[in-house]
């Protein structure tokens, strides 16, 4: 009778986890297939992959002060070589990684949580806004999460008895690829191997030592190659630029108290970003989920450590790696760059409720405990479904459809001025829409508005002047002043192609048409 009940419970859990997987894949596919053209940050990577050969990607620092793991760049080049240089090809690897991450997280989660607690944790991960968003982003962030999950999963597999040969070679080979495709993996990999080595040395696990050294050898080679690329290929100029740009993500070392306070504050901020990304702008109270999970993680980590021992340390390898990397100013613990780091709290937070159920059963009965877990799990995915602004696909700076419309409206003799920060969009999508490089002028990069206005002065007397811009940013809101200058000072606006998605400010792409014949 007990076996029959266990079988029924298994069937129920299997049904619900399958449903969550389908929902998670659906969110990722809607964003991946439904998203419009790449935005500024994606285009900087895409143009590098487009203009560099495989050999150059391995041996030369990237243009535009960009950095990316060498394995990711090679995978991007492979995808575009096979499928062509289009948006879906550049986003293919992140999309595949985001789907694989669902199965990896579920497998890891099953080792720590059961029943309704497992479902609640899986709902949180599958519905995480960053996870479906970066599935459609031609950047390495989705791969960073999957790499962290894979290395964690691999170490947990090594702790189990009788590791099979196919699993061994999967761990060694796929781990090699993921380490090359992730900056954080260079620290996570040796950490989890060290955790596995201790019980192996004391003969507490059944993993054959030759299996361990095969895996460790493959991973060590990958770490060495990735470290060589980071140290000797990425230029010092790029490193300095990135360090300056991401300085807010490094740990404050001016005082020990400040450092200790930085850790919980950063964990809260980054867990909130991992779960809900920019959803807090629409629903500010959504950050309470991250706060609740962190508080519950206090008893949750104790509960998991007592029950699973060193496996809990493996689980938190990504988080510990992020703290170490930010402390030594190697990688910032900040937003998308550290999106790989906080998913373990999705498990430990729900484990906190499981611990209360185990320690205080008279207060936290099973039904109440599972209900509380689901109450934490459902808000994010419900908001995603209910709020139109929070649903995938999420478009920003959709330059290609705008340039297609611009091409239709261009007349012989028209002048086309491209704002400096819109140059990537024009260089990548212009030729695809029949706008030759000789048909437009790209402005310079200036520290104040005056030089931009002087550039526009050269068009005085022209009947039709197009102003194409994107990548408006708060520190440099120059397109606003440039439009006023063109439309109110030296001419008048006679036409406009608005952003295809109705976006404004930093997400906007637009083209305005001016008549400057009044000024000669």
Topology diagram in text:
Elements: H1 2-34, H2 40-51, H3 54-59, H4 70-83, H5 87-90, H6 92-110, H7 115-126, H8 129-133, H9 141-158, H10 165-180, H11 185-201, H12 209-233, H13 236-245, H14 256-276, H15 287-308, H16 310-315, H17 317-327, H18 344-359, H19 366-386, H20 399-409, E1 415-418, H21 423-429, E2 441-442, H22 449-457, E3 465-470, H23 478-489, E4 492-497, E5 509-515
Parallel strand pairs: 1-2, 1-3
Antiparallel strand pairs: 3-5, 4-5
Helix pairs in contact: 1-6, 1-7, 2-4, 6-7, 6-9, 7-18, 7-19, 9-10, 9-11, 10-12, 11-12, 11-17, 14-15, 15-18, 18-19, 22-23
Overview of this protein structure:
By secondary structure, the protein is mainly alpha-helical. The protein has helices spanning 2-34, 40-51, 54-59, 70-83, 87-90, 92-110, 115-126, 129-133, 141-158, 165-180, 185-201, 209-233, 236-245, 256-276, 287-308, 310-315, 317-327, 344-359, 366-386, 399-409, 423-429, 449-457, 478-489, and strands spanning 415-418, 441-442, 465-470, 492-497, 509-515. The protein has a 5-stranded mixed beta sheet. Helix 21 links the parallel strand 1 and strand 2. The protein is globular. It starts with a helix and ends in a 5-residue tail after the last strand.
The counted number of beta strands is 5
Order of strands, widest sheet: 2-1-3-5-4
Measured as a percent range, the helix fraction is 55-70%
Based on CA atoms alone, the radius of gyration comes out at: 26 Å
**Overall outline:** globular
User: How much is the average pLDDT?
Assistant: 95
Element pattern in H and E: HHHHHHHHHHHHHHHHHHHHEHEHEHEE
């Amino acid at each position: 009778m007990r076996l029959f009940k266990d079988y029924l419970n298994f069937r129920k859990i299997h049904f619900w986890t399958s449903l969550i997987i389908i929902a998670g894949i659906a969110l990722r596919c809607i964003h991946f297939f439904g998203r419009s053209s790449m935005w500024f940050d994606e285009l900087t990577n895409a143009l590098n992959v487009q203009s560099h050969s495989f050999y150059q990607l391995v041996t030369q620092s990237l243009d535009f002060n960009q950095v990316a793991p060498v394995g990711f760049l090679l995978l991007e080049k492979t995808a575009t070589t096979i499928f062509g240089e289009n948006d879906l090809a550049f986003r293919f690897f992140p999309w595949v990684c985001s789907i694989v991450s669902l199965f990896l997280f579920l497998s890891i989660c099953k080792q720590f949580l059961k029943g309704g607690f497992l479902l609640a944790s899986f709902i949180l991960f599958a519905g995480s806004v960053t996870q479906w968003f970066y599935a459609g982003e031609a950047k390495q962030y989705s791969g960073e999460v999957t790499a962290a999950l894979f290395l964690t999963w691999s170490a947990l597999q090594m702790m189990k008895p009788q590791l099979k040969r196919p699993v061994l070679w999967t761990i060694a080979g796929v781990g090699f690829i993921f380490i090359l495709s992730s900056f954080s993996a260079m620290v996570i990999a040796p950490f989890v191997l060290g955790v596995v080595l201790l019980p192996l040395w004391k003969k507490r696990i059944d993993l054959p030592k030759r299996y361990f050294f095969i895996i460790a050898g493959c991973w060590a080679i990958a770490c060495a190659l990735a470290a060589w690329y980071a140290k000797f290929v990425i230029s010092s100029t790029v490193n300095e630029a990135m360090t300056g740009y991401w300085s807010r993500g490094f740990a404050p070392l001016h005082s020990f108290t400040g450092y200790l306070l930085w850790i919980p504050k950063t964990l809260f901020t980054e867990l909130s970003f991992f779960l809900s990304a920019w959803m807090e702008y629409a629903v500010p109270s959504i950050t309470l989920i991250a706060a609740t999970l962190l508080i519950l993680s206090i008893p949750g980590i104790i509960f998991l450590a007592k029950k699973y021992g060193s496996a809990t340390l493996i689980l938190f390898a990504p988080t510990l790696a992020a703290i170490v990397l930010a402390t030594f100013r190697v990688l910032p613990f900040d937003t998308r760059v550290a999106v790989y780091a906080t998913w373990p709290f999705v498990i430990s937070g729900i484990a906190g409720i499981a611990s209360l159920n185990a320690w205080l059963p008279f207060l936290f009965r099973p039904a109440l405990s599972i209900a509380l877990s689901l109450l934490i799990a459902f808000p994010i995915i419900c908001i995603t479904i209910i709020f139109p602004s929070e649903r995938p696909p999420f478009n920003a700076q959709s330059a290609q459809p705008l340039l297609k419309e611009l091409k239709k409206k261009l007349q012989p003799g028209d002048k086309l001025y491209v704002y400096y920060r819109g140059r990537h969009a024009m260089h990548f999508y212009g030729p695809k829409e029949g706008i030759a490089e000789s048909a437009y002028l790209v402005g310079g990069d200036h520290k104040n508005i005056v030089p931009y206005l002087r550039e526009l002065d050269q068009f005085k007397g022209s009947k039709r002047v197009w102003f194409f811009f994107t990548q408006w940013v708060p520190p440099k809101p120059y397109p606003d002043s440039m439009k006023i200058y063109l439309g109110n000072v030296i001419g008048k606006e006679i036409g406009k192609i608005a952003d295809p998605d109705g976006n404004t400010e930093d997400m906007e792409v637009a083209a305005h048409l001016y008549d400057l014949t009044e000024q000669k």
